[in-house]
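Entry:
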Amino acid sequence: MLFPKKVKHRKWQKNRQNLKGIGNETRGTKLSFGSFGLKAVSYEHITSNQIESARKVISRSVGKTGRIWIRIFPDRPWTQKAAEVPMGKGKGEPQGFCFEVRPGRVLFEVDGIPELAAKEALRKAGTKLPMKTKVIARMH
């Protein structure tokens, strides 16, 4: 699983609820490395476990001939309070790391395999993620 070697702050503040999810992504919206990619259509936080799960599905389909690029890195810590703990008494302990995905972000790219295999691999990977995704192809 992906996680940063070192972080400046153990706990981050939450985003303002009225600004959450407003606006599309401006960076990382086009294919840079591969011929096919998986693009986010909705806003969501992806945990490092979910990224790893999607990566496994893609790598199983791609095999040794193709290449995979992961275009996101989970650097945002998420916290959770223990089960059956009353409200108050501070913020919960860090549980892991996630990445805040806005619509339009390219999450994964693949190359070196046929079009049908690439689209099927990316579609399967999209089912492992908690958001709506679409498969995109490079325009030649």
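The chain is about 20% helix and 25% strand.
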